[in-house]
Amino acid sequence: MSIRIDLPNLAELDAKLKALPDNVQKRIGSRALKNAALNCAQVAKANCPRKSGQLLASITIRKKRSRRYKGACYSVRCGAGMFKGDTFYGGFLEYGYLHGSRKLGPMRKFIPAKPFLRPAFDATRSSNIAMIQKNVAEGIDKYMAKKGIPQGT
Questions:
Q1: Is 21 helix (H, G, I), strand (E, B) or coil?
Q2: Which residues on adjacent β-strands are paired with residue 97?
Q3: Three-state DSSP class for 98?
Q4: Nearest to 25 by CA among 134, 130, 146, 139
Q5: Does residue 99 sit in helix, strand or coil?
Q6: Measured between alpha carbons, how far is 21 from 5 in angstroms, rounded to an integer?
Q7: According to the model, what pLDDT value does residue 148 have?
Q8: CA gap 90, 101 in Å, rounded
Q9: Which of 14, 33, 113, 152 has the fewest C-beta atoms lying within 10 Å of its C-beta?
């Protein structure tokens, strides 16, 4: 699950970040997003249905390249992804499915979803935004202190 979050009302933090070199900007932003993704993954693991524990163990974060957006992108996912690999059934649990052969047509029984990834994202959304802001501010301050740059600039 990948969702883009734009952080509003951050003109001062954005100005400080843009004053830094590009590689430092990427490093600070990537670390902040990774911490937020880890937080979301912890909540997803807490919400995850447990029968064998395989699905729970497969919940990971992954850094992705975005063709659409410039910058870092992390996703929380199950194993190889929804409907892929050994934990393919994570997608069925997340979205629901029709049980039985396709030959049965409308007689197939709908098994409702038992989502665990989307509720984890929704539950951590506001705390993750605050965490990203805090981590970016700390990263900027840490870099400026390391380089001996006064905090007012």
A1: coil
A2: 111
A3: strand
A4: 139
A5: strand
A6: 23
A7: 83
A8: 20
A9: 152
